[in-house]
Specification:
Elements: E1 11-18, E2 21-27, E3 39-42, E4 48-54, E5 57-64, E6 70-76, E7 82-85, E8 90-95, E9 100-105, E10 115-118, H1 121-135
Antiparallel strand pairs: 1-2, 2-9, 3-10, 4-7, 4-9, 5-6, 5-8
């Protein structure tokens, strides 16, 4: 009557997929490292909610300014707080090696509801500075 799930491996694993929604766990991987964010992504059909289980993580949101450049907002996540990224918002998450995050989103998001935007070297530098600043708060 009670199901339990845990993802111990690296990266993203959707482990509860039901009609209309899913729960996944994201564990650290190199592309999500605090110093390694090189892209942001966006979902066109779903908000995405994040809950930090353990470790340290910074949730990143980005908006385009008038010149189509990105302006970053970074928040150091606290365990047990639910953070939501609204649909059509550029985002990513930077994590330390011990970090693990639960993600709740529309079902089948992982199968194709994403658009990636690579960051330029300059944008990566700006983002790294913003992540470091968020980690010191």
């Amino acid at each position: 009557m009670i199901e339990t799930y845990e993802h111990r491996g690296e990266g993203y694993n959707p482990f509860i997929i039901r009609e209309g929604w899913q729960v996944a766990q994201l564990n650290h991987l190199e592309a999500q490292d605090l110093e390694g964010i090189a892209k942001v992504d966006m979902h066109r059909k779903t908000d995405e909610a994040f809950v930090l289980l353990r470790g340290s993580a910074v949730l990143i949101a980005a908006a385009e300014n008038e010149s189509a450049d990105l302006c970053f907002t970074c928040v150091k996540m606290e365990p047990g707080i639910t953070y939501n990224i609204p649909v059509n918002t550029w985002h990513n998450i930077a994590m330390d090696k011990e970090a693990s995050v639960i993600i709740v989103e529309r079902s089948d998001t992982h199968l194709g509801d994403y658009v990636y935007r690579p960051l330029t070297d300059r944008q990566q530098g700006v983002l790294k500075a913003a992540i470091r600043a968020a980690m010191t708060i």
